[in-house]
Amino acid sequence: AQVVESGGGLVQPGGSLRLSCAASGFIFRSLIVSWYRQAPGKERQLVAYISSAGDNTYYADSVKGRFTISRDNAKNTVDLHMTSLKLEDTAVYYCHAATYWGQGTQVTVSS
Length: 111
Known about the structure:
Blueprint: E1 2-6, E2 9-11, E3 17-24, E4 33-38, E5 45-50, E6 57-59, E7 67-72, E8 77-82, E9 91-97, E10 100-101, E11 105-109
């Protein structure tokens, strides 16, 4: 059982990226799913989470209004749509559900 992130990359400030988290080996439609990020030299921080039904979400103040978390329980996926990206959004982004962590996907915001 695992979760796998995808969709990271290099983007200019002001640009957008969509990250995706896919679960395999277990069904996470009954679980809260979270996105975290860790920048070099910093602690891992919670970015956003979504309730099992998708009707409740949370965003860190630093991303509120710019990031949107969504899920498709039929596909066992959770997406993080990131817009108006800033240099300080550069980090490795991780998906988390129950005890499962993905390997992370790198997001680099640079001009």
